[in-house]
User: Fold these one by one.
Assistant:
Number 1:
Amino acid sequence: EPEVTQTPSHQVTQMGQEVILRCVPISNHLYFYWYRQILGQKVEFLVSFYNNEISEKSEIFDDQFSVERPDGSNFTLKIRSTKLEDSAMYFCASIRGLGETQYFGPGTRLLVL
Amino acid sequence: DQQVKQNSPSLSVQEGRISILNCDYTNSMFDYFLWYKKYPAEGPTFLISISSIKDKNEDGRFTVFLNKSAKHLSLHIVPSQPGDSAVYFCAASANYGGSQGNLIFGKGTKLSVKP
């Protein structure tokens, strides 16, 4: 069964460093999403991406964040200058079309020291 | 601003009995509702969904009920099994009106099914 994959599974970084989180969505899917879950809190929407551009973004997704689909398979989330409060699980999700179920990757646990 | 609320942080049920997880929402634009199950250190796994045009959807042991007038949905698991022990998230989206289907999650309910 096709699945969303994410790398790395864990990332530890120093405050102020740049990180890139990678996702490979399901191959025939067209809409892509990033979510995050700070420890003990709910899963929060960050950004949606369709047709090579951002469709929607939340207040969390400030100018320190960017997303890219550099080729036909990868979907990346970049945090330019990490802060302590960026420590969280980051989940990628994808769907084939609107109104369909979002399938989530296993997540990347980011720890900013 | 909690558009999706799960007021019970935890629920404990005996194996074989029914588990009922509840969820309330405030945004009347939501038209699609989902339940996800999540184990520690894993991504949310889709369980079951319901469109706002329906009031019930059933899949095996899992049934979701939607009461639009009350802005309430519930997930019933019958019979509950120890393997069902996980955190259950209610999520909602508005797939029209310009929204791109991003999900709004509740805080989750930790279900423990005891043998």
Number 2:
Amino acid sequence: EPEVTQTPSHQVTQMGQEVILRCVPISNHLYFYWYRQILGQKVEFLVSFYNNEISEKSEIFDDQFSVERPDGSNFTLKIRSTKLEDSAMYFCASSQGTGGWNTGELFFGEGSRLTVL
Amino acid sequence: KNEVEQSPQNLTAQEGEFITINCSYSVGISALHWLQQHPGGGIVSLFMLSSGKKKHGRLIATINIQEKHSSLHITASHPRDSAVYICAVRSKGAQKLVFGQGTRLTINP
């Protein structure tokens, strides 16, 4: 069964460092997402990406964050100058769409746990 | 007020019991998702609903659009069903999912 894969599974970094989280979505999917879950809290939307551009982003997704699909398969989330409060599990997800609209079930990766010290 | 409210927050039951988890939402939606999160953190999609009812094995999901309410049922529950079950909605015209807080289900043998 096709799956979304994420690397690394766990990253520990020092405050102020840059982090790149990588995701390989399912190959025929068109919509890509990043969500995060701070320990003990609910999952929060960060950003959605379609047709090589951001289609929607939350207020959390400020200038510290960026996304990229550099080579047609990877989908990356970059966090510049990490802060303590960026510590969370980051989930990548992808879905199919039809006719330019996202009608598909969401498939999640296993998550990348980021710990900022 | 949260857009998505789940109840109960925690549920402990004995193996074999019939389980119901409820989800209420406050906005017009294009779809509602039920998801399962395992102790390791991974999230698996169980159902995506926009109307009616869906069944997969021992799991049944229903939605009432007029009442803005959905339920997830588990028949003949088993300890391996122990997980956090999450309701999430996609508002009309939006890409993002808005998540509920989750219901932690524990099934004892």
Number 3:
Amino acid sequence: ETGVTQTPRHLVMGMTNKKSLKCEQHLGHNAMYWYKQSAKKPLELMFVYSLEERVENNSVPSRFSPECPNSSHLFLHLHTLQPEDSALYLCASSPGLYYNEQFFGPGTRLTVL
Amino acid sequence: DQQVKQNSPSLSVQEGRISILNCDYTNSMFDYFLWYKKYPAEGPTFLISISSIKDKNEDGRFTVFLNKSAKHLSLHIVPSQPGDSAVYFCAGYTGAGSYQLTFGKGTKLSVIP
């Protein structure tokens, strides 16, 4: 595998389900990000991790819970989501935290019923 | 309030002609800009960047121009090819120590053979 991978690519879940999104980067980067892309809206930064420490939580509801066990892996745990949380969730990584080009995964298309 | 604006949701261009994608920003603290290209079912991929100390940066068929006084940048693709058909995102970092990349909504470019 190369670059940034995300699984699953598509996910349909009910409002009472618990699921997790997984991201893995094979680039040796130190920073990882979760973004949300809703229809007709710009990409919105959700969480930032640098060297496994969370440095940003952009007022994201607690039903989204990130986890970064090491610098190569990033998870987004989902529970009791709302239909308006349906979106494309993108993971990205960068060599460092500041002024870096970010490399994106293909995204997980999430639908909440 | 959107800080990075791409006011044209779509653009159609004949193959071989020039494509010009525009981006405006409202915050004068933005000082490093990136353009990303996104194909369907893929994550955004980095295309070209420009620092505020420059007014032009070229990479092959792609040139980005920055007009700081107008808070405007543009991406020129010459000559346009059908494979350039994608959504193009403009994004910016605001000042030293910034790790938050702010994106525009994107412009969908269609290059007609």
Number 4:
Amino acid sequence: NAGVTQTPKFQVLKTGQSMTLQCAQDMNHEYMSWYRQDPGMGLRLIHYSVGAGITDQGEVPNGYNVSRSTTEDFPLRLLSAAPSQTSVYFCASSYGRGYYGYTFGSGTRLTVV
Amino acid sequence: AQSVTQLGSHVSVSEGALVLLRCNYSSSVPPYLFWYVQYPNQGLQLLLKYTSAATLVKGINGFEAEFKKSETSFHLTKPSAHMSDAAEYFCAVTTGNTDKLIFGTGTRLQVFP
């Protein structure tokens, strides 16, 4: 049981490049979320999904796209990378709303130069 | 909307001393509250959660937290700090009528010998 798997673990991009951060879970969780972690700012919600085909914006969605074609996968796309998107990105999944809590992946450290 | 405030971005204690990490929440409906721990260069791990069953919640590694509705608080404590407790700790909140899990800005715990 792998839990939540994120790839890649590290990535360096040039300004203006695009890329996709991958996230997969094998726990049959309906809820999945993407967060970014920046020093002094905690974790901020980028986008989330409550099931296949359903996505919504979080606190800081600009510059990012998501889609959820399957229950297992929830990729995060950076359309045109900017230095302000340098961060550590975490994917998380949950069985459902409320008290279930989230299981987190190990993160992707992204640097945009 | 829900929110959490963590007082103190850094807390330092001696090994064997009491650990107290503060978290206050804001929610117009009954909240579900969580504490997560993040060790260096790792993802987040659930320490404990409050789901309205009991106000005093015990978690892993000897940590516990008490839900106090009158004070809108959910402080994390451990009677005796260990060197291995050095990490960053995050408080988070959600409710039964939202799909979002919202995090505080985190508290970095240092433990000195």
